[in-house]
Specification:
Number of domains: 3
Structural class: alpha/beta
Strand order of the largest sheet: 6-5-18-17-16-7-8
Largest sheet: 7 strands, mixed
Strand content: 15-25%
Distance between the termini: 27 Å
Bound molecules: iron/sulfur cluster
Helix content: 25-40%
CATH class of the largest domain: Alpha Beta
Oligomer: single chain
CATH topology of the largest domain: Rossmann fold
CATH architecture of the largest domain: 3-Layer(aba) Sandwich
Length: about 750
């Protein structure tokens, strides 16, 4: 979609975003109670004493503070906890509000299960916890006795907090370097902070204090970062007449509420950012003090953008006119507190390292690094002061082997974990992984190329799932050791998005475990103890709770009472000593960064002559594609132009639809180089011509009757697009075609 000058969209909304958003949670709560009153398993609590427990929602990286109302022993309502740093107004998203459906709903796994038939066919035999722990420890002892400890891999949602770190510790003691976390925007931000600022940590984006937000595809009103906090920030921005510019290939909720929508072609965003840098430099609108005093490599950076990113050149292929690029760049550079934001959708993909660097360079040019309203680098959490891991000879040998994904090797030095490479390795060399632990992750559903992931699972001899739900990955397991759900367990969750100060949420039991489940931390400790020797000695704790209490130390009482711990508000790190680079300065350009900029963007897979369209997924706050799956309530909030009955829809520009001869609601076959599905068409002139827009979060094949069989899982139709600069998935969609069904 080429934007003409006249079409330059200035979508100032009549009221504030806050006005639009504020009633939503209450309306949704009301709808939920009306709609769900006929379910037999809906809580109908008897009268009794009302109590409230503060906890933390762990259903997404937002980690909102929650307050759960109970009547006697039964939880009856989840509401936002007032006064927490992340959701100060007490707001929650539809998933968080309907969390009781995840606690009391029927799709939970009742107790430990052992596969009792062909893998994936759903034939299970209930076993006791003792049998389950004995079986898994016997299997792991066997693999270890063959001298192959490195063939145990583990995949979890995150790598921070005691639970992921217990898994990592287990692998270290056992002898495997193959610990993986699911991909996210943090992968890119970690690399960017390391390369430019020499910081091992995460990016604190101070959206709340910014007055000009330039978002490169981030779903700021649809679940990015810490959603309630981000929505609050956008509401405040609007109230204070700030500016929101959204760069995105479709008129998403965020784009619709933005002052300016820049419909750039997917894959050209890095070039667009660098052409804005060109303008800021050419017009001398950069922060001369910050650039002169606190950066290195400015001259080389200038040479690069001058040679390659003249707005006239970039406009020819990115879909945004040159004068729009110039105006946006100047408006950004002359704002008081401009902030450029990286991360597509909800931030569940790493994306392009080149784009992440380019966006961060914009923040550096305007001097908004380690400043209020800018990007503040938050050092990694280091509160887990556990005794050293005991490593015997077998473990030491296993830990010397190369990671299966080659992350952190000279080939991919910037990546911590490249999950798609784990499964590619398994498919290419099946013997490399003898056993896999999966916790708080659903790779057979959530990863692009999920059919290949599932194929890899078929080749892994022993899979242990710790899922609370019968999700697509648990279906492929040999053994399921079901975890308590988040309302039944303790867990610390360090917050890494939506905050500019360190904060740890504490998820704590609101009700007693309802089923024969066990805390995943206890399962890990028991398996370690059953293995005996150095592995057992590395786990000195009697149980998970004592391990957690030791980790939180003298903060335990305060954090368990309040539900979270937050560092005191403090000024951002000083620019004079805030950079850990060899020069002590922000690195705009050096040899390593130059090599990243030199690498072009990869292109979406598929031959354009056979697949003339581009399939791009989008995120919605009404759907989730993370490990937990959605709730029945969430599905009821989805528009019938997204899901109607069992049919999922794709959004298509009317011009594109007319070209193919398609009309509103028509059933079509959507084909890509990796798969095909039957969908229906929704005409939407907010989608760029040539693009097929499809939601993430539908098309489950497991997770119970409320979710299974509804719509299409986009991950069956796309594949990872490996970013040559990082090895991570650049998430650029895939070529596609539509034919009449
Ligand atoms: S935004 Fe995330 S953490 Fe907050 S309520 Fe929703 S799912 Fe829970």
């Amino acid at each position: 979609m080429k934007l003409s000058r006249r079409c330059f969209l200035s979508l100032s909304i009549g009221g504030t975003v806050g006005t639009a958003l504020t009633p939503l949670p209450w309306k949704l709560t009301d709808d939920m109670s009306i709609w769900s009153q006929n379910w037999p398993w809906t809580p109908v609590p008897p009268d009794g004493a009302y109590t409230y427990i503060n906890s933390t929602c762990t259903l997404c990286p937002g980690h909102c503070g929650i307050r759960v109302r109970k009547v006697d022993d039964r939880a009856v309502k989840i509401e936002g906890q007032e006064g927490t740093p992340l959701n100060q107004g007490g707001g929650l998203c539809p998933l968080g509000l309907s969390g009781l459906q995840l606690l009391y709903g029927p799709r939970r796994i009742q107790g430990p299960l052992k596969r009792d038939g062909e893998r994936g066919k759903g034939q299970w035999k209930p076993i006791s916890w003792q049998q389950a722990i004995d079986e898994v420890s016997r299997k792991l002892a066997d693999i270890r006795s063959q001298g192959k400890p490195q063939s145990l891999a583990c995949l979890t949602d995150s790598d921070t907090g005691t639970v992921p770190q217990l898994f990592k510790r287990f692998l270290n003691a056992y002898g495997s370097p193959n610990f993986f976390r699911m991909p996210s925007v943090e992968d890119a931000y970690e690399s960017v902070l390391s390369l430019t600022q020499g910081v091992d940590g995460f990016a604190g984006l101070d959206l709340y204090n910014a007055d000009f937000i330039l978002s490169f595809g981030s779903a700021l009103l649809d679940g990015y970062g810490a959603p309630p906090r981000v929505m609050q920030a956008i509401s405040r921005l609007k109230e204070q007449n700030g500016t929101l510019v959204q760069v995105e290939h479709r008129l998403s909720n965020t784009a619709a509420k933005a002052n300016v929508w820049l419909a750039a072609k997917p894959g050209t965003e890095a070039d667009l950012a660098l052409s804005m840098a060109y303008v800021i430099i050419a017009q001398q609108k950069y922060d001369t003090d910050f650039i002169g005093t606190h950066t290195e490599g400015f001259e080389a950076f200038v040479r690069m953008v001058q040679e390659r990113f003249d707005p006239q050149k970039v406009a020819a292929y990115c879909g945004v006119e040159a004068d729009v690029i110039v105006r946006t760049a100047l408006a950004f550079a002359t704002a008081q507190k401009p902030l450029a934001v990286y991360g597509k959708g909800k931030g569940q993909t790493a994306g392009s390292l080149r784009e992440a660097l380019a966006v961060h360079a914009l923040n550096a040019l305007v001097g908004n690094i380690n400043r209020v309203g800018g990007v503040q680098a938050i050092p990694a959490y280091d509160y887990l002061q556990w005794p050293a891991v005991m490593t015997d000879e077998t473990a030491a040998a296993g830990l010397q082997t190369q990671r299966l994904d080659r992350a952190r090797s000279p080939e991919f030095p910037h990546a911590q974990a490249i999950v798609h490479r784990l499964f590619e390795t398994v498919n290419a060399s099946p013997g490399e992984v003898q056993a896999l632990f999966v916790a708080e992750a659903n790779p057979c559903y959530s990863l692009p190329g999920s059919a290949n992931v599932q194929e890899a699972f078929d080749k892994i001899p022993y899979v242990v799932s710790f899922s609370s739900y019968m999700d697509e990955t648990a279906m492929q397991a040999d053994l399921i050791l079901p975890n308590h759900v988040y309302l039944e367990r303790y867990e610390d969750v360090p917050v890494r998005s939506g905050t500019t100060r360190p904060m740890i949420g504490l998820c704590q039991p609101v009700v007693a475990p309802q089923l024969n489940t066990r805390h995943v931390g206890d399962s890990v400790i028991l398996i370690a103890k059953a293995l005996k020797g150095a592995v057992a000695e590395s786990f000195p704790w009697a149980d998970y709770e004592s391990c957690l209490q030791e980790a939180l130390g003298d903060q335990w009482d305060a954090i368990s009472d309040q539900g979270f711990w937050a560092a005191a508000e403090s000024a951002p790190a000083s620019l004079d000593n805030g950079f850990g680079t060899p020069s002590g300065k922000f690195t705009l350009m050096d040899e390593t960064i130059g090599a990243v900029y030199q690498v072009g963007e990869p292109s979406a897979a598929g031959d354009a002559s056979e697949y003339p369209l581009l399939l791009m997924p989008y995120d919605s706050i009404r759907l989730t594609s993370r490990y937990v799956g959605g709730t029945p309530f969430m599905l009821k909030t989805v528009a019938d132009t997204v899901l109607k009955g069992q049919d999922g829809f794709v959004d298509l520009n009317p011009e594109t639809a007319a070209h193919i001869g398609l009309g509103e609601g028509q059933a079509v076959r959507l084909s890509t180089p990796v798969g095909e599905a039957r969908v229906r068409v929704h005409l939407d002139d907010g989608v760029m011509p040539g693009i097929v827009s499809i939601p993430r979060g539908l098309g489950h094949t497991a997770q119970g009757p409320f979710l299974a069989g509804k719509g299409v899982n986009v991950n069956r139709l796309i594949a990872p697009v490996e970013d040559p600069a990082s090895g991570l998935d650049a998430a650029l969609g895939i070529r596609a075609k539509l034919t009449k069904a």
